[in-house]
Request: fold
Amino acid sequence: MLNLIDRLYEYCAMRTLLTLVAILAIGTSLPVVSQPAIAVSSNASAHLAHENYVAAINSNNLESLLGMLTDDVVFMAPNDKPYAGKAAVRPWLAAYLKAYKTHWDKPVQEFVVNGEWAFERYSYTSTDTPQGAGAPVVDTGWGFVVYHHDADGRWRVARDGWGSNHPPAK
Reply:
């Protein structure tokens, strides 16, 4: 009887081993599905999008800054309504740049690329110097940017939302 149980155990073990070998053989013969080339080739350029965006902000040039935005961009600034679309963001940016010479320092806290989208969490220190006279206004805060890899190969800002660490002035 013990001999029969031993033979049954060996049979089951051999059958399991053969099944695993068959699964591995089939699995390794299947075609490999790779990610789209955009995910691999644009990863470095996605990270450069942050540098380009900060440079556009600090250029204080409306057209340079608008060039970094998708047509359907959404801006969500502290203590203001959201602005959806480049046409809605343009007058907001124009008024901001007319009122201030700005400089932003935006260290990246986290940056994730997933296909044609990239997500960035950042902190910031902004210094807004009035164009006429007056003391610079310094603010610190946090933000979240969504970048999109557009058809022309450039990464642009699709969403930018930020918040101040300071309560609004009353």
About this structure: Residues 2-29 form the longest helix (28 residues). The chain has two domains: 1-33, 37-164.
